Amino acid sequence: MASSLPRRILKETQRLAADPVPGISANADESNARYFHVMIAGPEDSPFAGGVFKLELFLPEEYPMAAPKVRFMTKIYHPNIDKLGRICLDILKDKWSPALQIRTVLLSIQALLSAPNPEDPLATDVAEQWKANEAEAIKTAKQWTLAYARKSLKKALLHQHCLVLAPTKIIET
Amino acid sequence: MGGRQSSVTEERPRSNSVDTQVNIQRHVERPPNMMTAHEFLQTMRNARFLSSSSDSNASEDDAGPSHAMSGSGRRGLHVRPGRLHGHHSRRSVPVFMMDLKCPVCHKTVPSDDADIHLVMCLTRPKITYNDDVLKEDKGECSICLEDLQAGHKIARLPCLCIYHKQCIDDWFKRKNCCPEHPGDD
C-alpha cells in the first residue's frame, strides 16, 4: 500500500488546478495521486503548433528529492525525444532540484518543443536529420504533428480536458 | 577485456534484492545504483580501452584497495595526476562514447571527461549552513512548500537562501548544492 501522500504533492495538485499554465493541463489520476495525465499544446513558434501532445508524469516515492518521471505518449518528431517518448532534459536527470515543481518541469518540456537541441540528442536519427537538413526535419515534424497530435486534440476537446490553450488557431480543426 | 568490462557493472551490489548469488564483496553500506569512485574510474578506463586499442593504461591498477568507501564517497581514491591529460584526442572516436554517472555529484559525464570531472567534484568546497531558529515568518520553504514560521528550525545557506533544516538535510544527502542556486558543474 502506498504511504500517505506528502502535503507538497497535494499543494502542487491544488495549485495546478487553481492556476493552470497556459497551453498545459495536468490532472492527477483518480486512483493514483502520484500519476498525472498531462496535455501540452505545441507552441505556436514551433513545428508542433496545432498539435496537442499527451504525456504521463509520475512522482516517485522520493519526490521531491528525486525528479518526476515524464514520458510523451503521443508520437513526436523531436531530436530530444525518442521513440518510446523518453525525454532528454537535464532537469529530469542530474540537474533536478527540489525547488523545481511539476509546473516548472512541464514548462521546461514546453520550452524544449520550441527549442529542439540536436547537439544533445536522444533520438540520434532525428538529430542527424535535424543537423543535416533542418528545413526537411521541420517539415517532417509538422507532418507528424498533423498525423499524430491532432487525434489527441480531438480527444482533449471531447473529454473536456481543462486545457487552457495558447491563443490563436488551435481550434480550427 | 570485454568480459571485464561487463563485470564492472554486474558487480554492483543491489541492496534489498533477494540474493541468488553469494555476494563476496564486503562493501560498506551505500545506496543502490551508486558506484564507488573506484568502480567509476574502472568503468571509465574500460570504456576508454574499448574506444581506443592503444590505451595501455586500461589494465593498470585493477586491484586497487579502495573498495571501502564511506557514504560521502570521498575516501579511497587513487587518481594519478598523470592520467588527467591527453584524452581529448579521442574525442574524434564516436564509438563507445559512454556516459558515466559521477559517484560524487551524480551528474552524467562523458567517459572522456570523467577523470577531470571527478577531480573537480572532489576538490569543490562543500556547502555548509548555519542553523537558526526563525524569529519571524519568512514565506515558503521551496522544498516542502510549507510556510517557514517563527520557531521553525532553519538552515541559512551561503547564498542567503533559507530552508527548513530537515528539508535541506534530506536534499544534501543526495546533492550538496542549494536547490535554488545549483550553479554550474
Automatic annotation (TrEMBL), chain A:
The entry's keywords: ATP-binding, Nucleotide-binding, Transferase, Ubl conjugation pathway
Pfam families per record: UQ_con (PF00179)
UniProt similarity note: Belongs to the ubiquitin-conjugating enzyme family.
Name of the protein in its database record: UBC core domain-containing protein
Gene Ontology annotations of biological process type: protein ubiquitination; regulation of protein localization to cell surface
GO cellular component: UBC13-MMS2 complex
Active-site feature positions: C88
Taxonomic path: Eukaryota, Metazoa, Ecdysozoa, Nematoda, Chromadorea
CDD domains: UBCc_UBE2N (cd23813)
Domain (UBC core): residue spans on this chain: 4-150
Any GO MF annotation of the entry: ATP binding
Superkingdom classification of source: Eukaryota
TrEMBL record, chain B:
Region of interest (Disordered), residue spans: 1-21, 51-90
Record's bilayer topology term: Peripheral membrane protein
Lineage top rank: taxon: Eukaryota
Pfam family, one: zf-RING_2
Keywords: Endosome, Lipoprotein, Lysosome, Membrane, Metal-binding, Myristate, Transferase, Ubl conjugation pathway, Zinc, Zinc-finger
Gene3D superfamilies: Zinc/RING finger domain, C3HC4 (zinc finger)
Keyword set includes Lipoprotein: yes
Gene Ontology process terms (BP): proteasome-mediated ubiquitin-dependent protein catabolic process; protein K48-linked ubiquitination
Protein's name according to its UniProt entry: E3 ubiquitin-protein ligase ZNRF1
